User: What shape does this take?
Amino acid sequence: MMGGGNMQQLARQAQKLQQQMAKMQEELDAREFEAASGGGMVTVKVNGKKEVLSISIKPEAVDPDDVEMLEDLVCAAVNEALRTASEAVEREMGRLTGGMSMPGLF
Assistant: This one.
């Protein structure tokens, strides 16, 4: 069985890890991620909180007779930007936690 000193040390380590994770999450939330679709016709920026910051559409992508294509390009760019942000968050947090699985934490 663990002695009281070991439990205190473990608690301190857990608290330190929690502080590091909170700081990392803050930094990741502020980072911006960008993705494009249609060869750069539509560009989307999101942050680490997975909020869309901007959508840029080149005028030549706007065809009133093919609105569906533009909608598809916007969806593709948004989904790619969100995927990129999610992967970066998972990768960075994984480095911090040593690959420990912590579902729902970030």
